[in-house]
Design brief:
CATH topology of one domain: Double Stranded RNA Binding Domain
Largest sheet: 3 strands, antiparallel
Structural class: alpha+beta
Shape: elongated
Number of strands: 3
Radius of gyration: 28 Å
Strand order of the largest sheet: 1-2-3
Helix content: 25-40%
Order of helices and strands: EHEHEHH
Length: 137
Amino acid sequence: MPDPLILLIEDEIDFSAIRAQGAGGQNVNKVSSAIHLRFDIPQSSLPDVIKERLLALSDQRITAEGVVVIKAQTTRSQDQNRADAVSRLQALVDSVAVLPKARKATKPTKSSQRKRLETKATRGDVKKSRGRVTGSE
């Protein structure tokens, strides 16, 4: 994983161990290996610009109160699930840390304009030639 653009403070992240879902036999019923990560965006020490962008995202992991909820249960190890949840949170924060490139308005070239008009004229001629056929019976 590349270096994070914005460092997250681990004290601001709330972890809770829960039982994983799915198949796994008795082990699933007795071991709490899945991790539930909760990160409160408004209460965090992130820069205000990043907070605004995170809250503006239409991501199903962000609640109406601005809390990011991530559930990690891919491995049987609680530590690996914890690391996976933190990396997914870091990826989410990094995704809004990079400014989108501003689009420059461009004009179509003369040749593309000419080509478009020629194509339109050709199509118009084809449609004009589709008149009703008159025949003597």
